[in-house]
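We were asked to recover a plausible sequence for a given structure. The inputs and outputs are reproduced exactly as logged, with field labels preserved.

PROBLEM: sequence recovery
POSITIONS: 257
GIVEN STRUCTURE:
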């Protein structure tokens, strides 16, 4: 079994980002809107803050424990107008999920560095990070029979878009994965991004399968690594690479401003 570590890749990618940042005269500015107090989200936001500091970018955190839609929509419109803000991140999930699409629709496409809008000019960070990790370990998606679990805004949906655009072989299972175990086990590459804790267990896996945990919680890694050909660790791989590609988009947005 091989653990698909990304430590060296994160270091290499960050070094390239530092070089790219030095070529940009404009000081990149990232605004992050977070509603709620989830501890795991707080940790992930701290990682983004640290990356901003490392890359000499301004980081504006708008943290609201509770907020009405009118407050959030006014905030989004204000961030759209601010010239010092080049990228906006709406931290998902929102406490009131029914408001998510309306707030995404308010975001300027040129500032949507998370690729939440279909007209965003940027590549989605998590799928970009996943593909980079695979290629770092000499696994080419075009040569694999892939199953994508989930169809969320951050992983499943944009990853499926990438596969369709490149005409790679894949099947997407948006929900009820356990009802599709036979189909899943026929794949050579399983990418799970549902956000369902430890959804992927050994019964999903056969010996020659590569398994990617797109959310950091989808895969029971200690159990799966005993039967899979390769698996990403829950920490230190997809998460850090997602942040790298988010900031790659931010630097591009600042450069184009």
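RECOVERED SEQUENCE:
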């Amino acid at each position: 079994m091989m653990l698909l570590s990304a430590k060296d890749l994160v270091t290499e990618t960050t070094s390239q980002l530092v070089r790219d940042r030095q070529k940009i005269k404009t000081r990149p500015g990232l605004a992050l809107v977070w509603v709620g107090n989830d501890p795991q989200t707080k940790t992930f936001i701290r990682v983004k803050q640290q990356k901003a500091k490392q890359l000499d970018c301004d980081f504006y955190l708008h943290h609201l424990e509770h907020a009405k839609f009118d407050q959030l929509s006014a905030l989004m419109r204000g961030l759209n107008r601010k010239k010092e803000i080049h990228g906006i991140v709406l931290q998902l999930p929102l406490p009131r999920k029914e408001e998510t699409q309306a707030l995404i629709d308010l975001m300027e496409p040129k500032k949507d560095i998370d690729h939440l809008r279909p007209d965003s000019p940027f590549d989605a960070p998590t799928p970009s990070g996943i593909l980079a990790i695979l290629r770092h370990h000499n696994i080419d998606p075009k040569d694999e029979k892939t199953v994508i679990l989930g169809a969320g805004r951050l992983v499943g949906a944009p990853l499926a878009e990438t596969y369709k655009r490149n005409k790679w072989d894949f099947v997407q299972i948006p929900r009820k994965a356990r009802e599709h175990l036979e189909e899943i086990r026929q794949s050579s590459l399983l990418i799970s991004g549902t956000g369902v804790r430890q959804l992927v267990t050994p019964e999903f896996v056969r010996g020659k399968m590569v398994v990617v945990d797109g959310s950091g919680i989808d895969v029971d890694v200690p159990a799966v690594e005993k039967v899979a050909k390769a698996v990403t660790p829950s920490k230190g791989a997809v998460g850090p690479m997602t942040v790298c590609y988010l900031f790659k988009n931010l630097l591009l947005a600042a450069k184009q401003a």
